[in-house]
Design a protein that fits this description.
4-stranded antiparallel beta sheet, 4-stranded mixed beta sheet, globular, alpha+beta
Length: about 375
């Protein structure tokens, strides 16, 4: 791949089409979604009808076979207008990635078609109450008994966990083996012993529920094991390597949306007889915001291109992009609130929502502190 990166003509056309869809169909519903905490059924249908959920999945299972760079374009544009819609678009890409990467052909044919169509949500069951960043320290156990596994334990902060048709759950089948003792299973909704008793009361993204999962002697068929026993750690890490540029695109879209709002406000807000955009202090803020967004965009799409090429550098660049783009989102949204002054702290303007969504992007799929450690590990490995 060339050192410089730019979207091709097809990807630019895709961006224009998705932006039009978002501005005409999704953006105008944002205030309603914020007020009700419910994602409208007709918007779900629009997302499905336009193939946004199935875009990155293989054609063999009903997807578009789209590349990761183009999917990042989609995610960025959706996040630019509505974070909740972004969650509905991107969730299955994360949740079902273990099936794509490690599932047998029989498993893929069984689980993927309804996930790809958006008919079924698929959650990613990795994080635990006492084991977020410390994946190897998970306490959930899976014991093989004849033709089935019995899972006991719990997961926390699982997006759509209370409504997902499937959850890719990570549990230890050999507790004494550390991370080499982790395995991955597909747990189906309605399985005896599986429940989602609690939904988190979050500061943002209220129409995309985040649930606690409980496994109490949960019986899972042996054929729902993905790969072999002990493959779970590799499946989880490979999944996150693929999806981290998508999280970077989320931060990128949030930052762009906040910047657009701040620029528009600065051109209209009059103080001391002129628009505040005429003042150098505001101009410097806008310049820094725009520059950092463009830098994050280049890094994000370069990382996604490495995923498309199955290049080992996806690990380092994915983590770089994730922490840089989402840190930029936090800074840009904070500055956007500041440019709005007192109005930025009210819900009459969108920037306070962008600021709350930006904090989510810094934490999800590995905190930004962990991402820096991943980058450092890769640098030391390379040199």
């Amino acid at each position: 791949m060339k050192d410089q990166f730019a979207l091709n003509q097809g990807q630019e056309i895709l961006r224009k089409n998705i932006r039009r869809l978002c501005e005409e169909m999704i953006g105008p519903r944002t205030a309603e979604i914020e007020q009700t905490g419910v994602f409208p059924e007709n918007l779900k249908q629009i997302i499905r009808k336009n193939g946004l959920i199935g875009f990155p999945f293989p054609k063999a299972y009903g997807g578009s076979g789209g590349d990761e760079v183009s999917f990042c374009v989609i995610v960025e544009e959706v996040a630019r207008v509505n974070g909740d819609a972004m969650m509905w678009v991107s969730q299955n890409h994360l949740g079902a990635q273990p099936i794509v990467l490690a599932g047998s052909e029989e498993q893929k044919k069984k689980f993927l078609p309804s996930i790809v169509s958006g008919e079924t949500m698929c959650s990613f069951g990795l994080t635990e109450p006492e084991g977020g960043s410390d994946v190897a320290g998970m306490r959930t156990r899976a014991e093989l008994r004849g033709d089935h596994y019995v899972i006991n334990g719990g997961k926390r902060f699982i997006s759509f966990g209370n409504m997902a048709g499937y959850v890719t759950v990570f549990a230890k089948t050999n507790p004494s083996a550390g991370r080499k003792g982790i395995s991955c299973f597909v747990v189906e909704k309605g399985t005896p012993g599986f429940s989602a008793p609690r939904v988190e009361d979050k500061m943002a993204l209220h129409s995309s529920p985040t649930a606690e999962l409980v496994f109490d002697n949960c019986i899972v068929p042996r054929e729902n094991l993905l790969g072999k026993e002990g493959d779970g750690w590799d499946i989880a890490m490979r999944t996150l390597d693929v999806t981290r540029p998508t999280v970077a695109a989320i931060g990128l879209g949030i930052a762009q949306g906040a910047f657009d709002a701040a620029l528009n406000y600065a051109k209209q807000r009059v103080q001391f007889g002129q628009p505040i955009a005429n003042f150098q202090a505001i101009q410097v803020m806008l310049s820094d915001m725009a520059t950092e967004i463009e830098a994050a965009r280049l890094l994000t799409y370069r990382a996604a291109a490495y995923v498309d090429e199955d290049d080992r550098r996806m690990v380092k660049f994915g983590s770089m992009a994730k922490y840089y783009a989402t840190d930029v989102a936090m800074k840009v949204t904070t500055d956007a609130v500041q440019i709005h002054g007192g109005y930025g702290y009210t819900k009459d303007f969108p920037v306070e929502r962008f600021m709350r969504e930006a904090k989510f992007s810094q934490i999800v799929e590995g905190t930004n502190q962990i991402q820096r450690l991943v980058v450092a590990r890769e640098l030391l490995r390379e040199f």
